[in-house]
Amino acid sequence: MEDCIFCGIVREEISLYTIYKDEIATAFLDINPVALGHTLVIPNKHFNRLDTVNDEEVMKRLMNALIKVSNLLITSDICTDFTILSDNGVNAQQDIMHTHFHIIPRHHNEKIELKLATNKEVANAKNLKYTYNHLKKSL
């Protein structure tokens, strides 16, 4: 996609701190990091959201890139633990409509807090059973 900033990074029209690149995926330091080493991993081919990735090879190699970059952050002593996040869609607060994953290094006594409160209504047995049955029908 011509006007996608991440596609521009893949085409090397925009220079960033790229730390990993192969024919399927690119990883670069986030320019708005929440932690030292905060990295984005993207597929080189444009997909708006994760659920639109319809290529088995891209799926496998994207996961491989996530693992390689996570290990790179660990072996370079940036962190020992990490969180991987991916927002998909406007309601999920996706800001750039190109599939991407945040690898956020985590440390003891840090100020980052990503705890989500349980929705007690959704968690009740009736709603869990409804959701389970609804999903099973779609398989």
Molecular structure report:
- The protein has 139 residues and is an alpha+beta fold.
- It has a single domain, classed as HIT family, subunit A, CATH 3.30.428.10.
- The chain has helices at residues 5-10, 56-75, 120-123, 125-138, and strands spanning 18-21, 25-29, 39-43, 81-85, 101-106.
- The chain has a five-stranded antiparallel sheet, covered by helices on one side.
- The mean pLDDT is 94.
Task: Offer a concise description of the structure.
With 139 residues, the protein is α+β, with helices and mostly antiparallel strands. Helices cover 32% and strands 18% of the residues.
List keywords for this structure.
alpha+beta, 139 residues, five-stranded antiparallel beta sheet, HIT family, subunit A, 32% helix, 4 helices
Largest beta-sheet details: 5 strands, antiparallel
Number of strand elements: 5
Provide the spatial order of strands within the biggest beta sheet.
Answer: 1-2-3-5-4
| CATH domain topology | HIT family, subunit A
Instruction: State the low-pLDDT regions, or none.
Output: none
Architecture, CATH level 2? 2-Layer Sandwich
Radius of gyration equals 17 Å
- Outline, from the CA principal axes? globular
Give the rounded overall mean pLDDT. Answer: 94
Please identify the structural class as seen in this structure.
alpha+beta
Write the layout of secondary structure elements.
Blueprint: H1 5-10, E1 18-21, E2 25-29, E3 39-43, H2 56-75, E4 81-85, E5 101-106, H3 120-123, H4 125-138
Antiparallel strand pairs: 1-2, 2-3, 3-5, 4-5
